[in-house]
Records
---
Amino acid sequence: MRTYILRRLLGIIPTVLMITFVVFVMMRSVPGDPVVSLLGDAYTEEDAVRAREEYGLNKPIIVQYFIWLGKLVRGDWGASILTGRPVLQDVLIRLPVTLELIVLSMGVALLIAVPAAIIGALRQNTWADYTATSVAMIGVSIPEFFIGVLLLLLFSIGLGGLLPSSGWIYLPGTCPTVICGASLWGNAQHVLMPAIALGVGRAAILTRLLRASMLEVIRTEYVTTARAKGLAERPVIFKHALKNALIPTVTVMGLQIGFLIGGAIVVETLFAMPGLGTFGIDAIIARDYQQVQGFALLTALAFVVMNLLVDLTYTFLDPRIRYA
Amino acid sequence: MTKEDDGLVTKTISGGSVGEANLPSTVDVVVGARAKGSVSPFVEGVRRLRRSTTALIGAVIVGILLVVAIFADVLAPQSPIASDQKHMFERPSWDYPLGTDQLGRDMLSRVIHGTRISLLVGVSSVLLALFVGVPFGMIAGFYGGRVDTSIMRVMDLILAFPIYLLAIILMVIFTPTAGLIGTMKVTGAIAIVRIPIYARLVRGSVLSIKEKEYIEASRALGVRDPWILVRHVLPNCLAPIIVTTTLGIATSIIVEATLSFLGLGTQPPTPSWGWDLKANVSFIQANAWLALFPGLAIFVTVLGFNLFGDGLRDALDPRLK
């Protein structure tokens, strides 16, 4: 097991290198470069040449990439060309916001999906099942930002400004600087709508998958055996059926991470949250190479690490699966 | 008539649903399910499809949307791009059933014309991905070896990306513009991220199909490879392709709307639902309904394709009967 994890961790390196390299090359093939926006109205050809030299933008792309990589190995993520701020510092300020959003939205998803799927599967073809499956069908068809808009209409406008429509108050302890406000209540108010907006879509997908695999599992012989030996319904459902039904679900949820990252970008944009999603999209549009690299690196890491975690979850869900 | 087996041959293709929001981890399809004297699997599938209420509702929604998209010029009461300073932020009325936006443009006409962009990008990006991905997947699966490795390496490279990161960067490279060219750029970006889904799906099917006796029989008869691929291999991996395509249109429409929402889709003045939604969110305090209609349009369209795709999957997968 330990060697397996170690091998997989080593396997992360080439994937991350590849993703960051492709992003590096792609960003530099985008028409225009950050120097143009850096100099703004004061743009002259000479200044531009000097600035490009200063930031090493005149070197061959492959050389630039290895310079970036070399610094990264020493813990230097580079500095933004436009603001001059160190990328690592910016990323660390924004990471807790996005992490909180994603963790809570997955919580929302599980909270809705697990009961809905169990009820749907146990009472197949009843009104409860039809309600669960219809709602899930609607859920997979609504993009996150439209759920966000509906929530805004309901809570920020409809109910007299019950919840704030934008901005952020940090969770106590995650506040990165001295000046930013942090309070538990304020944080809860700000994170509630984004987490629901991002979570509902996941909940719908999860419900559909989990219901389908629950239906398969409850017809297996080991569930019949468990019932036949007089086990109460609750342990049969939760310990025998649900755990096994979760295996295919976890796989697909792992594959959903790519969508979750996109969802975070959209939801953060809609609610004007200072998270990694808004950081990334702003950096890409402004062609701030160093910031984009930082964002790509973190996204790639999150992506591959999540995939590894998914694989490791299998051993917990199904002890027959062992990694050597 | 070499491709029919006697009984049911059920096989499982996994790994093809990476980008799919609503496909289970495995798609089960029945290949060559014709017993002696019974109807063809295609006819049987259509029969089942017609009995499915969900598929019917989905088909009706998609049908209506197609009509709206084709006859947008006739159906829209006004021009979707003509601004009218005297009628900004009109509430819904007889003259403006869905009101007007901040430039005084008729919202109903914009929503109607938005159908075009949404359907055009949704359908054509999936078809483009299909036409590139399927041949690559067939060649990789059929020939194996070095060809397989090199094709799938490229596909895995694309799959290694979180799809939105790739789509966003591609759109920045293509630089979003208005009109047909702008729409084609979005189509291209979405198609690129979707190609590997088809390649993987088809490769998986081909790997098992190529071991079948009817392929061996064709080979023994001296049939050339391209003919075998097109006549015998392709028809037998159509079912999962059709399902993935229908559900894929739904996903592509959401991706298009999302790119537009982020300002990276087809640019104004071309009407696009995602962009309209984003633009009108700024005025949500004063004019809530403006953001509502483009969002509803996206929702109904995606729902239509999802329902139809779901029904289609049930029809092509008799195990779920």
Note: The first helix of chain A runs from residue 2 to 28.
---
Amino acid sequence: MLEMLKQPWPWYVAGVIIGLIVPALLILGNKHFGISANLRHACAACFPADIKFFKYDWKKEIWNFFFVAGIIAGAIIAARLIANPNPIVVNPTLASELAGFGITDNSNMLPEELFSWRSLFSLRGLVMLIGGGFLVGFGARYAGGCTSGHAIMGLSDLQWPSLIATIMFMAGGFIMANLILPIILRL
Amino acid sequence: MNTVKETISVQPLSAQVDKDVIDFEVRSLDTMCVNESHKVHPWWYNFKYMPVGILFGIVFVKAEIVSWYRIQEMFRLQNFHMYGVIGTAVVIGIISVWLIKKFNLKTIHGEKIEFHPKKFNKGQIYGGLLFGLGWAITGACPGPLFAQIGTGSLVIAIVVLSAIAGTWTYGYFRERLPH
């Protein structure tokens, strides 16, 4: 049993559990699944700077901080107690493409060459960590939600603006991964 | 004299209601989680959301949704995994929401479960595209970012801080951006 839990879980198990988070949050307290709102609540709580967008009673949304604290705790549990002892299996085409950029360490979820304190002090790492994070935060709020709020919660409620947002998420991802990222990885 | 007194005593109440309405409107701008629980609970009631988060965090890690490689494979059409995860989650979500509406299910505190229609604006196009660009760089949307920190990649805290900075910058320029 434990050996089975340690293996990577198949997509249908993950998909069912993530899908059930939608009714779980609604039934627990009328909450809509959405993670990126936390980034906004953090702004509202720490540096609202008199910006109207951040002037609201963020304390009414602290349930989401508890939810995110749970995500971090869950990740710690999974990484300490039921971690997969083997390296991540990477599609051979992707692996050889990445090897061309000197990225070969697939012992962790994130390639060490890109996501480490050392890489933060290289141009490539700086662009990816700071630039990537900035785009995620800016884009999610501009779009009015991220993958959880639009692609999962919004689509579950059959909201067509969420479908447009989801299509644009995918379009941006395809453009970045196939056209722009190869240039960044060469830095 | 009496009427004056009345207006004075009524005003604070209506001002409070106005403030709540405005507060709700501001919060509902571009954010999904505006469902108001009209019941007031002590803060520690929020601990009930933690087990849901823990389960979510475990699934994120165990199904490798937090892996940069899985996201790269998704955007290169090299692996069905992420399409399977998101597709299944959406199907389960649609069935769940449909059941909640059909049977008019209540929360565990007996409240009616509410849904708010999303309004279309151009932000979903421009913002969505920018978010997608970032997603393919970091290999993580906001949920997995937090989970990555939990797996021990502490440097991802920098990515989260940058995402908060991005959110703040959006708020700052909001009025001047096309919506």
Note: Chain B touches chain A through 128 residues (CB under 8 Å).
